[in-house]
Amino acid sequence: MTALDSLSLTPHAFENLGIDSQTSLADTALRLAQKSGASYADIRIGRNQDESAYAREDKLQYFNSTFSAGFGVRVLLDGSWGFAGSRIVSETEVARATAEAVENAKAARLLQTRPIELEDIPAYRDRWIMPVAQDPFTVPVEEKAAKLLGINAAALKAGADFCNSQLWIVREEKLFASSRGSSIHQSRVRIWPMFTVTAIDKQTGKFATRASLLPARQAGWEYAAAYDGEAEAALAAEQAREKLAAKSVEPGVYDVVIDPANLYLTIHESVGHSTELDRALGWEADFAGTSFVLPEMLDGLQFGSPLMTVTADRSQEGGLATIGWDDDGVRGTEAEFPIVENGIFRNYQMALGQAQLIGRHRSNGCAYANSPTAFPIQRMPNISLQPGADGTTLADLIAGVDRGVFISGSGSWSIDQQRDNFQFGGQVFWEIRNGKLGPMLRDVAYQARTVPFWNSLDGIGGRDTYELHGAFTCGKAQPIQIAPVGHGAVPARFRGISILNTERKDI
Questions:
Q1: Which end of the chain is more exposed for a tag (fewer CB within 10 A), N or C?
Q2: Maximum Cα–Cα distance across the chain
Q3: Using CA atoms, how far apart are residues 58 and 54, in angstroms rounded to an integer?
Q4: CB-count exposure of residue 418 (10 Å: 0-12, 13-18, 19+)
Q5: How far apart are CA 269 and CA 439, in angstroms?
């Protein structure tokens, strides 16, 4: 037994597995894979730390802290992928998993209809460590609990009947090494404090909720510490009370103005998922679905109005998908591209080996595995709606509406398997009358098909209205993988949108 074989799955033991030891394990996997005939091989060795806390009213209900470590070996043999991973990080286990990955590739080869061809990717030997002012995992539990309980107390004092608050923190650390010579060490942290308040009309039994609008971010504890959750919780309680007394919306066709805290999710569901190449090729059909955006539509589909430019990146500060290299070892700068440019569909998101399937020459940095033991698949980078003319404000957009609805904050959502027909709710809504905000509304959802919706876009906010939001837990694949993705957005105006009334009608 070697020193590497003696390591157990504890945080302390994994910390003792330094970069030199990880590199030695990686070299073992790559050497054995190539000796077995693989034309390409890579390995990810890493660990994830997760913390979650949940408080309801004046009690901390739970505090959970988990740690997981492991590795995954991927090989390409005669044009077929093979993969194997393990939670046991040792030299013996790496050798065993590498042999299993080779055997899996041989089995897949029997079913392969078209050999996978890998594009050329430069080799990198580098590291990318996300800077944080305060490591959130070193903050005492008492301080985290006090943050959540303070939010709840402020909501109850302001008139809420109930309030629950949550805190999610994740740290990812991994080493990526490939047979092409890459050796990349990366580390990043993301955090999300959030809450939901509930107000009840005790005479009618009706209730209204309002969730926090604070975005999840890639950041340290300083982000949560600076968040004035108590002030937002008090406002949310007042707005939930106001929603109880608000007029139920009259269904019909309206012009709508949508703020970034709501629009980011519409971008995610209707643009982000519809332009994933694996979906368009049918690879996700049995679980996540396919896409109405077909490869023959590249550079031709009028996805939206000329005001619509949606870009991909891995560089926005605080973006949930920001990182130096993706899980294929593609540099983050390769993930800087337009998906929709002035309304025209220009690019799919792709992972390694997919580009040649649609006549493109290279991947564009869109691979991610949510665990070292998971196979990297195509996942979104940060995907954002770009600002319009500088100086255009939310008030300007509202001023251009005679009869409409203003929608703020993300709520319930539904979209079909091809990412075409959707329905989205929100947190708070106001009537727009003659260019000005009117009274609050309730029971609002907007419904549309993706292409007509984005082609109805006729006004967007300027640079000063841009906000960075994101999805902390986007699910895809079987077994399911959870990925974080950032979405920047500006307030936007859409003409002639169907507004539904979501109030339950008792029969």
A1: C
A2: 78
A3: 11
A4: middle
A5: 29
Residue 106 has pLDDT above 70, yes or no: yes
CA distances 359 to 293, 348, 353, 354, 419, Å, are 16, 12, 11, 9, 24
Q: What residue type is assigned to position 156 of the chain?
A: L
Give residue-wise pLDDT tens across range 341-363: 999 999 999 999 999 999 998 88
Class of domain 4-245: alpha beta
Q: In this structure, what token pair is assigned to residue 238?
A: 């007042």
- Residue 1 tokens read as 């037994």
Residues 6+ apart with CB under 8 A from 308: 340, 342, 343, 385, 454, 457
Q: What is the pLDDT of residue 323?
A: 98
Residue spans of the domains in the chain: they are: 4-245, 248-501
Neighbours of 502 (CB within 10 A): 16
Q: Kindly list the distances between the CA atom of residue 212 and the CA atoms of 221, 230, 235, in Å, as whole numbers in the listed order.
A: 18, 11, 10
DSSP 47-109: EEEEEEEEEETTEEEEEEEEEEEEEEEEEEETTEEEEEEES--SHHHHHHHHHHHHHHHHHHH
**Three state DSSP letters for 201-216:** CCCCCCEEEEECCCCC
Give the span between the Cα atoms of 193 and 220, in whole angstroms: 12
For residues 453 and 305, the answer to whether their CB atoms sit within 8 Å is no
Is the peptide bond preceding residue 479 cis, with omega within 30 degrees of 0? yes
